[in-house]
Structure formats: C-alpha cells, structure tokens
Amino acid sequence: MEKSMEDVAAARFEIISPLLDASLDPVLRIEKQKEVSWHCGKSYRTIGRWLKSYAANGFAGLKPSKTCPKTVSALPENYAEILEAAITLRRECPSRSVRDIIQILELEGLAAKGILSRSTLQRHLQKEGFGLRQIRLYAKHDAASRRFAKSHRCMLYQGDIKYGPYLPIGKDGQKKQTYLAAWIDDATRFVVGASFYTNQKVDIIEDTLREAILTYGKPEAIYVDNGKQYRSNWLQTACAKLGIKLLHAKPYHPEGKGKIEAFNRRLDSFLAEIALQKPGSLEELNHYLAVWLKEKYHKDPHAGLSGISPETAYLTDKRPLCFPDIAACQEAFLHTETREVDKAGCISFDGQKYEVGLKLVGRKVDVCYDATWKDEVEIHHKDFPVFKAKRLRIGENCGQTQLFPEATQPIEAKHSRLLTGLDRQSGKAHKPATVATSFRNMAKELNAHV
User: Which of 137, 158, 204, 229 has the fewest Cβ atoms nearer than 10 Å?
Assistant: First the structure.
C-alpha cells in the first residue's frame, strides 16, 4: 500500500528528531547528523534538507512534493560485471564511498566515464547487502548497555503494557483478562499515566498518553518497545504533530527500558493486594490503582532517587512544564480512515451508519475520529469545508429522505438532439447539386414555340 504524505512526513520527523535538540554543539550536531545519515540509509544532504524544511514550515515541510515520474535509463550490458567489481572494491575498503568506487572503475577501464550513476550503483549495492550502513553493521559488535537517566522531568516518558488481573466482567460473569498501560517519567520515576483496560489495542496507548500530556505536560521524547501498538502509523504521526521524538528500544534488549520494567515489578505488590480485595469491575480496579499510586508508590522512598520519593523529585524539579495547545492536541490524537458515501448520503464506519449529506454521494471522504468517542466524527473533502457527522438514528417509522439537489435531477427532452444533429449533418453532406442545363426543359421550350 502506498504511504500517505502524512505517513512519510512522520517517518522523516522520526529520523531527524535526534537533531532537533537546541543544546547540541555545532560540531556535535555535524557528527550526529552523519551518524543519523548512515543509520537510516539517507545522504547527509538529504537529512540537512529535511531539517531546513522542518525549521521553515514545521511538520508540513516534511511532506513530499509531487514530482513527475523519472524516465528509466538502460543499464550497461556488462552491469553485472561492474556491480561485482564494485562489491569487491567495497569489501576491500568498507569506508570507500560510491563516488570513489565509480572513479576506480573508470580508471581501470571497467566502465566508460560518465556512464555510471551514483544513486543507481548505491541502490544496487544496498540490494546486494553491501550498502555503507550494512557494511558498518556487519563490523559492529554488541556492547554492554549503560545505565542512563534524564536530568529533568518531562524530558522522557517511558511506556509499557503489563498483564493485569482477571475480573468477572465478561458475558454471564465470566473472568476476563485486563491489561495495564502505563507511562513513567524517566528522571523522577513519577507515573504520569496508568490505567487498566480490557484489550491491548493502540487505543489504550492513546488514552493514557493523552492523559499524561494534558495533566503533566508534553515530554520531549517517549521511549517504548517494538510492540505493534507502539509501531502504529497513528502514534508516529501524533508524535510528529506534537513535536515529540518517538524512540524505540532495540529488539530483545529490555534493559534499555529498565525504569518502566522496575515499576512493573513494583506493581506486582499491588496486584497481590488487589487479588485479596476482589474488585468486581474495571472502574473499581482503576480506583484502587489510583489510590495505590497516590498514597503508596509516589510517597515511598525510591532507591534510584537517592532515597527521596517520586512525588518529591517531581514537585521539586525546577524545569517548567510545557502544555500543548488544546486544539493541536485534539487534532494530533485523531485517527483517519477513508470511506465512500452511498446513495443515501451515508457512510459505514465502525459497524455504524453516519449521515454526511447527499452532496457527497459517490465521493470518497476522509473520516477523522477520536478512538475513545465515536458518536461524532469529522468529515474532510477537498471540495467542501470540514464538518461533523453524527451516527444515524433509526426510528420506528420509515421517512422520506431529502431529495437530491434540483441540479442533479434528470430533465425531460423534447427530442433526440443526437439524431437531430446527425440528420442535419447528413442533409448537408448529400444536398443535390444544381444542374446548369436540362435537356428536358429545352425540349419543352422548343415544342412550345412550334
């Protein structure tokens, strides 16, 4: 499936996000940009161009511009031999650039001067597994992980999902698994968002992250694992729109998320107590979780904070909190799907019908919605202003739907304009020619004079 422009912009933001730190020294910024370049497989100049576009136009500057398709140039007949020689040159010296490889091939007479394209050769080298980034990864050896901690609150939130207790909230009182979605502040170990849910969908990430941002402020970055909930296009786009760096831990390296993992272990004591309390509903379970966090976890001394409590560490931090604009936050947390309007002026969405109007019949519209509240959705179409659509309420009696606009109704024709036009054209084409002299008329005239 082809990526939308917003998905591409979100992916580009994720790449350049490590370079947006204003405190970076110019020299360190150059080195960091080089590191980002080979890590993502993009050129240094491309990364620089994205940074300038983001600085000038924000998130919109990262959206790709529409370009005309390029013509495909034919490769030389001996390109397989040239590629094999290029791979050998790369293996001889892994740091050798594609430009230098092309120059060597030209000097040795393996390729005519100017016939090789740098981008084409680079693409083929990457396809064969000999790109510069790939070569460096081959030579890289895993090192021991180092502990890290941010210096101030709201610099980094760590998120995770943990299995919760079973509750009798299923059909006919059957036990149902619950799941905890939590966010913890890296510097202070303060839990900024945590709730139990009955599913592991991306909606629970959205709900708790929005609660954390609106209550405790927007973080500079969030750090999560590689679960499908955290790899969603929605989370990537939402973070890009809010200017939050989205960081993912290395696969099979849970030590990078040590703080949230330590909180999960600490939460086991709460799960042991809640098993004795036997809550009968999800609301009751979340109530006791909030009480335990407020009166127990946040007030207990923390070994990682030199013996002070997470609450004290959070409240005494002098870093000012940054809250996003409400409208911008609401827009960032919207999901978008495409639907086609049926002949009744409705769309089918989430198993329900929504009225959008007859003016959009047969057209495709973008449906923007909040995953936690779907009674009303936003309808976007390039030819009409944005408007709200509500769920279709089905009454007891059928009713006459509004008529289509008069301009769309058929009109009565007096005759077939096609056949009339063809007949007129045929008459002009076969019009009989005027005869200059008629012998019959001449004979009649002669008899008349005899």
Answer: 137
Q: How far apart are CA 162 and CA 197, in angstroms?
A: 10
* CA–CA distance, 367 with 361 (Å, rounded to integer): 15
Angle, CA 151 vertex, CA 150 and CA 152 arms, to 5°: 100
* Helix-helix angle 118-127:98-107, to 10 degrees: 110
First to last CA, the chain: 97
Q: Read off the pLDDT band of 144 (50, 70, 90).
A: very low
Distance, in Å, from the CA atom of 52 to the CA atom of 335, rounded to the nearest integer, reads 28
> Which pair of structure tokens corresponds to residue 201?
């969908």
Give the three-state DSSP class for 174: coil
* DSSP 3-state of 275: helix
Residue 111: count of CB within 10 angstroms of its CB: 22
Is the pTM here over 0.70, yes or no? no
Written as one string, the DSSP assignment of 42-91 is: --HHHHHHHHHHHHHHGGGGGSPPP-PPPPPPPPPTTHHHHHHHHHHHHH
Query: For strand 335-340 and strand 191-197, is the pairing parallel, antiparallel, or unpaired?
Result: unpaired
- Name the 3-class secondary structure at 324: coil
Give the HSE-up count for residue 355: Cα atoms under 13 Å, Cβ half-sphere.
Answer: 9
* Percent of the chain residues past pLDDT 70, beyond the cut: 85
Give the tokens for residue 426.
């045929």
DSSP letter for 18, please.
G
